[in-house]
Amino acid sequence: MPRLWLALVGTVSLSACAQLADLGLPGPQSAAAPVTAPSINFTGATLVRAPAARDLAATYCPQVVSGPLGSGALLCREIFGPPPSPSAMVVSFDLRFHVTNPNQIPMPVASALVAARLFPATGGEKLGAACVSICAEGAAGCTGAPSPDACQASSRDVRSLSDFVSKSVPRLLIAEGVALADGRPPSFALPPLAASSQVDITVRYTFGPEELLGAMRDLAAQSANDLKGGHLPTFAIPYTLEGTVWFDAGSIGRIAVGWGPTQGTWTIPAGGLIAAASPAATARAAAPRAASGAPPAAP
């Protein structure tokens, strides 16, 4: 009887596997097929939003230009106008990636880590890191807030959030979302990478105004004489970026793929990046400054 029972079970199992194959469903062997890590090619970092250089000058000139009885602050106001509100001093950037999924199954993006070093190789270096969790399209309550295990990996071949968080400046980096390169605004939801596909993805981050502007004060201090003479200094932000993206491979677990480091410099143009700003900010940046006296012409 035991042998007959085993034979019946084996016959039923083989029959079931054959039916699954006929339906195009994965059987035991295909379910255990190896999964290859997707590839990530970092293609660039673009500054997409920044204050006008005149706003930066109006912010920092009173801090770095001195004079008797407060005349330095008065001079700055006459030349550059009153300092803008903190909300006008936002600096945002996009990271662009080309991602390839070589597998025969879709691969959702689970979480992404970005670490930024600003002003590297100087005494004023600032380090920030941010982790964002990615939801499936249509998921409710998708805010990007990382789960406790997000952006963490046991392998030392990739960087985890714990490699940066104890050293980074709080809120230096604020995640604004991800998007496919199809013109949609950033959000925290993303469709899975289709099987055997390639896609371009953009991730947007914003620098925390207080932390970044505190570091940029050093740049203004180096240009105190220019500010005092009514000239707009050059505000340049050298940076180094690196990070890790985690993909959800189902029962296999999460696969971590690192990218970077890469380095470059963002230079805030004299007119600001008004094309990426709101209409109100655009009008404010283009409007002439009110002043009780005629300011020296800025280059």
What's this model, at a glance?
This protein is of the alpha+beta class.
Describe this structure in words.
It is a single chain. This protein has 299 residues and is an alpha+beta fold. It has one domain. 25% of the residues lie in helices and 29% in strands. It contains 7 helices and 8 strands; from the N terminus they run ααβααβββββααββα. The strands form 2 sheets. It has a 4-stranded antiparallel beta sheet with strand order 1-2-6-5. A 4-stranded antiparallel beta sheet has the order 4-3-7-8. Strand 3 (109-118) and strand 4 (126-133) form a beta hairpin. Helix 3 runs antiparallel to helix 4 (71-80). It is elongated and about 75 Å long.
Key structural traits:
disordered N terminus, 7 helices, 25% helix, disordered C terminus, alpha+beta, four-stranded antiparallel β-sheet, 299 residues
Q: Briefly note the structural class of the backbone.
A: alpha+beta
Order of helices and strands: HHEHHEEEEEHHEEH
Query: Average pLDDT, to the nearest integer?
Result: 79
Oligomeric state of the chains present here: single chain
Determine Rg (CA atoms, Å): 26 Å
Distance linking N and C termini = 98 Å
Secondary-structure map with pairings?
Layout: H1 2-23, H2 28-31, E1 39-49, H3 53-64, H4 71-80, E2 91-101, E3 109-118, E4 126-133, E5 173-180, E6 197-207, H5 209-222, H6 224-228, E7 235-248, E8 254-268, H7 279-286
Antiparallel strand pairs: 1-2, 2-6, 3-4, 3-7, 5-6, 7-8
